[in-house]
Amino acid sequence: MKILVCIKQVPDSAQIRVHPVTNTIMRQGVPTIINPYDLFSLEEALKIRDKFGGEVTVLTMGPPMASEALRKALAIGADRAILLTDRSFAGSDTLATTYALSQAIRKIEKVYGDQDIVFAGKQTIDGDTAQVGPGVAKRLNILQLTYVSKIESCDPEKREIILERRAEGGVQVLKTKLPCLITMLEGSNEVRRGTIDDSLRAARAQIVTWSAKDAEIADLTKCGLKGSPTIVKKVFAPTPRTDRAKLIEPGKTAGDTAEAMIGAIFARSASLEEDMTKLASGF
Ligand SMILES: Cc1cc2nc3c(=O)[nH]c(=O)nc-3n(C[C@H](O)[C@H](O)[C@H](O)COP(=O)(O)OP(=O)(O)OC[C@H]3O[C@@H](n4cnc5c(N)ncnc54)[C@H](O)[C@@H]3O)c2cc1C
After folding, report:
1. Which atom of ligand 1 is nearest to the CA of 126?
2. How far apart are CA 275 and CA 283, in angstroms?
3. Domain extents for the chain?
4. Distance (Å, rounded) from C-alpha 21 to C-alpha 206?
5. If pLDDT is split at 50, 70 and 90, which confidence band does 279 have?
6. Does domain 2-227 have CATH number 3.40.50.620?
7. Which of 193, 216, 13, 21 is nearest to 100 (CA)?
8. Atom of ligand 1 nearest to the CA of 119
9. Is the minimum distance from the CB of 102 to ligand 1 under 6 angstroms?
10. Global pTM?
């Protein structure tokens, strides 16, 4: 099985601070990590490779420093890493990102053979749009299975995969043909640490680095800022909530406190009390 995993290097959001005066994100000194959602997809790709043989290639589009994320993926167990980096990708929105990634995947298939499964994370912790996986599937013209919670079975001979997908109000069990694109849900597996051999291999590994020309990207007007119709109108930090948690005062029960709080809510919105009373009395 040949499996490709799209990974993105993101700032560790747990360590991001918003400037108290300018309200801008302070990126300086913030460490970068592999987007955590991508690790669940990487783990699933490695499990399939371990079972059926083959190879796992990780791909990222980003600045030269994104090679660090690829090296971490190699240390976890990926076989090959490809960095797609070029000034012409700067300012890419999700439309341009999916174009560059899908063109690079076509080139990977030319060089290393057709990919049976393409994995992506469910979403990123920085951009957070969850558009890139489905967008890449659309551009590659392959089926997409998002929010996958479990891969039940995979049959490389029949070229079939059966999996569970979380849907509104339940779980769908789906069988589909390969090739397809899958995005895994968080917590769907336990991400391995990688062996010492993997770490040594990762430290010495040559990261394959492609420019737009190397990746044979056909139309540069679809890349970067030129190919990005999205306009960010405003970026702002959410206003902190003013409501504070209420303590249950000594001597009062939780019921007393709840009653007092509901009273306070109704005092702020009289129509809400009316509506609730009507609902409760069945009108
Ligand atoms: C107008 C505009 C300008 C922008 N300019 C820049 C810029 O200059 N520099 C910049 O870094 N970002 C820029 N961005 C952000 C950039 O568009 C997104 O980071 C990128 O398109 C991915 O979107 P996302 O983070 O929402 O990914 P999602 O759709 O949430 O990601 C889903 C999955 O897709 C895969 N994926 C996403 N991005 C990549 C990637 N780059 N490589 C490999 N796999 C990936 C991962 O598996 C990820 O888990 C810009 C956005 C806009 C709207």
Report:
1. 25
2. 9
3. 2-227, 241-283
4. 43
5. confident
6. yes
7. 216
8. 47
9. no
10. 0.84
